[in-house]
Structure formats: structure tokens, C-alpha cells
Amino acid sequence: MEDWSFCLHKDYTADDSSSFCMSSPSMFGEAYLNEYSPLFSSFSSPLMKDYSLPPASNSGQSEVIATARDEEIESEVFYKKYSERMGWFDVLNHDRTCGLGAILNKEVGIPSSLESIRVKDFSIPYISWNKVDKKQLLKSFQSDFELVYVGQSCLTWEALHHQYRKVKFLTFSNCLFPENVAVEFQNFQVWLERFLEEERYIYQGTRVWNYAQARFASKTKTLLQVPKVPGFLEEDKEGIGGETVHAKEVLKAIDKCMKTFGNFITADRKKPWWKFKTSLLWTYPPVEDPKDLELLAELTKKLQRKELWLKDLQGKQKCWFNKAVNRPSEESQKEAVFFTVIEMKLISRVLQMPILSSSQLNWCQEKLDNIVFRRGRLLRTASGPLFPPS
């Protein structure tokens, strides 16, 4: 299993061209700007708005608090939209699981050692199917289960990323959160780690099936459900009741969740069926609209190219590993690479789906366009659109 802690101890150099070159520090300029900078944020949607880093002063802390207060409504909108889309995929998962049980004429579920997970009881009518119809329907169900897994994985990453940026911005002030916020993220990490352990030693199916059934069986839908970060409290204000934790502690909990999520994505090693043919020739997966075949080919090439640039960054960083460089710009690069590695894996997984819609391809395109290699640095915008339901 891949160790994601490496992303916090590396420096990276690459160039957004077919050839790689080293750039001197004086040439970096705008490359020092990270995803907290408004220069690399899109304001076309409130869900993509970002924060710029505040000055280290009392007035800077006041600015942080004032800005965060202004952004609370937008944060609420984001989380509501995230929850709604996760719920949409849950409905699809429930419908297909029950339908699969009807086809097989039995209750579908998987045993789990997690005490809180119970397969929901439901009555399944007997349906008679001929062999051809059953095969076609099962293939359709398999495609939908994969959509559930991929869709909720992408949504979860976007939510984790959003909560991380929100809390990190507040670490530049004396903001507090209720203690249960950090605990909820710790629980998120525990559920994900348990799933990975049980997948290794208990589950017998594919990743898609294991995930779909684990999510279906959980009444509280805890697996991959990112906790909500509520409004913050100001440390120097009176009337704060209950146990609280500093924003830095919450940030640490979210950071661990993101690393565990990286392991979750890396452990999915299923080879897509559309990459292989008996003739050993490359083929693309089907698309809903034939007009999108050209876009799919373009995205596949762009992804492969940027994956090579990212690997080159990581390879060159090994030569710099022992250098004592702790500038803020270097820290932002380590973080940017960590985020980009995960996002490229998610984009790759989307492009491996059995069938792709125009909205899903557009999502991949926007995510890839947000990743830029320039003057020996990795630049990226903070976020992007939430994964579409269809």
C-alpha cells in the first residue's frame, strides 16, 4: 500500500512542456502562488471561491475571521449540494441492489465484522428472467454500481478538500471548533481503514461490489461520508460552552483522513475491461454521445502527459530530499503534489468507467485544466465542480 506521507517531505521541479528543465528561484514568480491565492481561484461559481493567506498579525487574524464569517453561507451551500449528490447515488445503489436481489431471487448483502452494519431487511418478489435478459440487465446493474463507487469517491475527495481548505484558513487565527468535529473526522478515518482491512481479509468480490454493498448495508451511511464542519468559535469570546479544540487539531484530523483516502484509491487496482481486446489493440470505452469520442481521446492523452510530468517532478524531488528547504512556497508545493496525485488517480478511474456521459467528461476536462506545470512548479486551482450525478 502506498505511503502518502512522502508527499509532505518532497520538493518538486518540472516544466509544462515536452522537455523538462530546472528553473532558478528568481524565475518562479507567480509559481509561488498556491491554491489559497485568489489568482488561481475561479469566482464563476460560489463553490469554487477561495481564500488568500492572511498576514501574520492581529489585524490579519481579524481579517481571517471576517472573511470566514462571510464564507459560511457558501460553505453551507457546498455541503448541502455534496450531501444531496451522495444521497442521489445512495438511492441508485439501493434501487440496483434490491433489483439485483429480485433477479437472483435472494437478499443481497455481505457479512461484515462491523457491529453497527446490518443488511436492511426487504421483501423481494420472484421474477422470472430468461438467460439473455438476465445477462443484459446484470451488465447494466454492474455499470450503475461502478457509477456509485466512482461518483461517491470523487464527491468525497472534493468534500474533504473543501473542508481542509476551510479549516486551514482558520488556523491563522484563534478559532475553535466543538470537540466532536475532530472526533467525527477520526471516525471517518477509522471506517475507511476498517473497510480496507476487511477488503483484504474478508470480502471476496471486486472493489466496486464491496463498496456498493458496504455503503448499502450501513444505515448511517458512514463509509466515505465526509463530516460537516460547523461554524467556528472565537477563542477570546465569552460564553463558549462545552469542550473545544483549536482549528489546528481539526486540520490534523482531516489531513489523516485525506492520506487514508489516498490509500483507499491506490488500493483499487482493478484493470478496466476496455483497455484490452483479444487483438491486444487499445480501445476506448463507450460514450453516451458518439460526438464525445474525440474529447475522450484528447482527455486520455492529456492525462497520460500530465501523469508523466508529475512522475518527473517526484523523481527529481528525490535528489533534493536532503535539502533543508522550508519556505512557505516549498510547503505549498508538497501539498499541491499530494492533492494532484489523488486527483489524477480519480480522473483516471472516471475514464475507466464502462460508459461515460458528456457531463462526466467535462468534469474530467475541468479537473485536468486546473492542473498546470509551469517554470518548474506545479500550479493548481483550489477546487472544481462536484462530480455530476449522470
UniProtKB/TrEMBL annotation:
InterPro entries, alphabetized: DUF1666 (IPR012870)
Superkingdom field: Eukaryota
Presence of keyword Ribosomal protein: yes
UniProt keyword terms in alphabetical order: Ribonucleoprotein, Ribosomal protein
Gene Ontology CC: one annotated term: ribosome
PANTHER family in alphabetical order: OS09G0413600 PROTEIN, TRANSMEMBRANE PROTEIN
Name of the protein: Ribosomal protein L34Ae
